[in-house]
UniProtKB/TrEMBL annotation:
A GO MF term: ATP hydrolysis activity
Keyword terms: ATP-binding, Cell membrane, Ion transport, Iron, Iron transport, Membrane, Nucleotide-binding, Transport
Organism of provenance: Brevibacillus invocatus
Name of the protein in question: ABC transporter ATP-binding protein
Protein's membrane topology: Peripheral membrane protein
Amino acid sequence: MARLYTNDLSIGYGEQLIVKELSIKIPDKKITTIIGSNGCGKSTLLKAITRIIAPQSGTVILDGENISKENTKLLAKKMAILPQTPESASGLTVGELVSYGRFPYQNGFGRLTKRDYEAIDWALEVTGTIDYKYRPVDALSGGQRQRVWIAMAVAQETDIIFLDEPTTYLDMAHQLEVLELLQRLNTEQGRTVVMVLHDLNQAARFADYIIALKDGEIVKAGNCEEVIHYDVLKKVFHIDAEIGRDPRTNKPMCVTYNLIKGE
């Protein structure tokens, strides 16, 4: 049985229902990507699974427990989330920002222990940001900053990491750098990674499992062969897609597409 899953999850804002009775299972120690058009409920779903917002009905179950009843610090030792637009880190050094990932392990005095400092340096090492430790976060490039935010999540030492569009605002090289880092965290450390991505070919290349949403409901969930498919993309994005093969991975990829008109 999956460690993390939802049962009939419905999420909305006021009277507007965004996600409707959604039941999904997140594969353990795999990379799961959520795709779909703007406004389909991708980010809303992530926020509900990580308890940032409360669902109107349904449950999120982690390790057999309803997360709505879980102790906050205990939950923060199991899952970390990097939002689409992280809060400003103005005035902080990289090391100071990454130290915030140790919050779930701090006692009432809020002092960092030797173990905390070891975890911070380890997170900086595995994300390739150790050289920036004493630099202001504001002085870094977009790609460097994104890796530092991921380092903060890594320092939290959770088995599951959620990321909402981690490649937004990054150029192609920095997008690849971030995705390869997440892939290494998955393959080398067994972290479960769940992220929202807009780029279909990035989803196909890096994800083991893809969930395609439309209007808050699942159109298709499965591996990239099952989801990066003409019929699925037509229904989800209303496009006429030409599906080919990535010459480097042999996975399906969207070569080109047209909008479908008149239907």
